[in-house]
Amino acid sequence: MEEHDQYKAIMSAWSSGVSSYHSLFSAYLTANSIFIAASILLAKSFLESQHNGALAIVCFSVALTGIFVAFQMAVALSRFSGQNSYFEWELRGMEAKDSFKGISTFTNLYNWREKQESILITGHTPSSFEPNWAVKIHRYKYAARSKAIPFVFGGFHLVILVVVTYSYLSCV
Q1: CA-wise closest residue to 172 among 53, 63, 62, 59
Q2: Model confidence at 86, in pLDDT bands (50, 70, 90)?
């Protein structure tokens, strides 16, 4: 396989991985939000129903399933993130070779996003592309929060699980 074809194939895998990451992130946010809402409604019903044992088991099961989904979210998103970072690394390596003929898109993107450097290309108007405020904030604020989201959901599920369990055990 020619180097240009390899570059195109890896770029296609990268773009597919980025799309899959965002779709999966959105699906997990939706699923976890539904589990949280269901757990809270079940816990409220349980606490109002003079501690019905069957309702406690259902609430316990939903919260436990939510913890499992939050853990699965952390693992799956970390895997996709690592895979996408690997593809970017491969593409930057191909762009660094003397035989590469083309725009160093991933090298420019890396320097712009990670190092907060302007992209300078003569012949473009304007000749420099500056990182904006969102790019500067993303690396330090948002990226760290997106990694913490599965743990936040897991924490909510754990709190609901503990409250229901404690409440049930205290009345038995």
Answers
A1: 53
A2: very high
